[in-house]
Amino acid sequence: MPYNITLTDGSELITGGLLDNTTDSANSSLTLVGKNYKGYGLFINQNVVRLMENFANNAAPTAPLPGQIWYNSATKLLNVNIASTKGTASAIWKTVAGLTYSSTTPTNAYTGEQWYDSTNGQLKIYTGSDWRLIGPLNPLSTGNSGAIPDIVTDAPPSTTYVVIKFFIDNVLVGIWSKNGPFASDVPGFATIKKGLNLNSTLGQAFWGNAEVANSLYVAGIPVSGSNFLRNDTSGTVNGSLSLTNDNGLTFGVSSDFVGNVVSGTVTLKNQTNNKDFVLSLKTGGLQTPFFRGNYQTGLAEAYQRTTAAAPALTLVTKNYVDILSGSVTGLANFFGSITPSANVLYTLGNTTNRWSNIFSESILVGNLTVANTFATVSNIAQIYLGADILPTADVSSNIGSQGVRFKTIHAQDSALAGTLTVGTNAIINGSITVGGTGAVAGNLSTSGNLSSTSSRTSVNTTTGALVLSGGAGIAGNLHVGGTIVTPTMPTGTSNTSVATTAFVQNNSIPTGSLMMWPTSSPPTGYLLCNGTAVSRTTYSALFAIIGTIFGVGDNSTTFNLPNYTNRVPVGAGGLYSAAATGGSKDATVVSHTHTASVTDPGHSHQTGSTVADTGFGSARSTGVSGVATSTSTTGISVGISTTGSSGTDANMPPYLAIYYIIKV
């Protein structure tokens, strides 16, 4: 009977067990002996020796078990198999490191051996040739010295920051942070800023030369480096600058300008020969000179000429004095505005002594009186009127003529008591009211109302059109020989507005209507009823009507159209609910059997006979009746068995296939 050898976890070491009179060295690093095997003592002794020496060899043992120990005689290191399954292929050997605690250097060291130097408080590892320091860098004799990563927590909200702390002989002398500023509870570091922070309680400082400094300490107060004024480049002084001597200031490469004080008298001087002295103001973002000392004349000059509208204390120029004194004759040049002292008080010229020509870009007038209208107007680019243009008598003057017309007349409102004649185009942004006849040969465009109290407003049938952007209020008849153009009203509008072709096409058939169509290309505004999933946004009007009764689409952004492919419609509301489907294009014959039986209910037979009576010499008839048979079935049954095979048969009337479409 075989030995059933198991591992510590209960699993079987040798499948089927170790058979009698056999040995096994394939399932472990030992030679296992079966029952009744002769000479088993040798194998047992060898197994004991290998266990005692932990399989000492320069090569790993074969067929190791999980947890087996092997002493590598080449490296002098102890190894353990950390694999989870047995066998050479799955073996994972892990070195069991040794640690020596000693005040002196260990002897016979092997590669990877660890030694804690108790004298210096340092951990070291043997590389095969020397001992390499792991840490800490400083020995016990120097205390805790060096850079150590640490975490600092600031004041609420208690955020943590990774910093590097610098120690010298167990004293924290500095903290380097990549974040900041933030408050901390570390003594000597009330506020930690980005960069290197020194312990404020130790009186530490940087000594030597600094290439760049953000701030300098002046009397113990940090002052930003940008606040210092350099003498080798441009700078800005935000505070006041005081010179407590009479030598003053000197400007320019050649000391061109000097401001100084002599015996209490302040003097500003231009030191450069034959150059002006200019004073300037910044106005509207630009430098505007206003005063000049002319080096040629030695006189003061103003850049702007004084006007009557200037403040009372304004310095006047010679030009201004000449004008007021009336000493100007011939051609006079004005560099400002000519403005009367009161409104509608003075006249430029009169009916007897008039100006020959007035050249102007624009004229703002109350009344414009000219003797030679054509000559005067030809020299005026634009006329801006603040009042009305009135003819001298009612219905006596025209604006333009049939031969010489204005190109465009822009008006907010136009009220015509006579005839409206448009030869080319008229664009009116307001309303136009025609009391007479309106004849339009070109285009009449108005964004307001067109109102006519006449019985007829005619439009040339060949040359123009009546275009209305607003409403048309016509009390009489409107005769149009061209085209009436009006905006298309929104879908669903119900009022007296004119219906455009587009409006009729969009509203004559309700959304969701179904109809038959001869081709697979539906007309504009329709989709094929083929069950396709379409956008709920693009076809929102249709979605609002049918929803998801024909299918939910992707259950988010789409819905399904009805599917009439290979189907005929049937009325809903009785046996069938809306969107219900069913039926088949084929009829099915099902295999079946018919059985019939016949049962006889029973019956009787009537019999009779004649008997001769010889005793009395005459014959008598004696009837014997009522002889009945018993009621019983005949036992006869008739069976009819008709068996057919199942199949399909298209039972359809003559048909014509056609597409169904739906209005969107």
The overall pLDDT average reads: 77
Rounded to the nearest angstrom, the radius of gyration is 61 Å
Strand percentage: 25-35%
Q: Largest beta sheet, briefly?
A: 7 strands, parallel
Overall 3D form: flat
Number of helices: 5
Uncertain segments are 372-380, 459-465, 467-472, 610-625
Structural class: mainly beta
Number of strands: 45
Approximate helicity band? under 10%
The end-to-end span amounts to 88 Å
Polypeptide structure, described:
The chain is mainly β and 664 residues long. The strands form 15 sheets. Strands 26, 28, 30, 31, 33, 34 and 36 form a 7-stranded parallel sheet that branches. Strands 6-7-8-9 form a 4-stranded mixed sheet, with no helix packed on it. The protein is flat, with a radius of gyration of 61 Å. The two termini are 88 Å apart.
Annotation keywords:
664 residues; seven-stranded parallel sheet; single chain; mainly beta
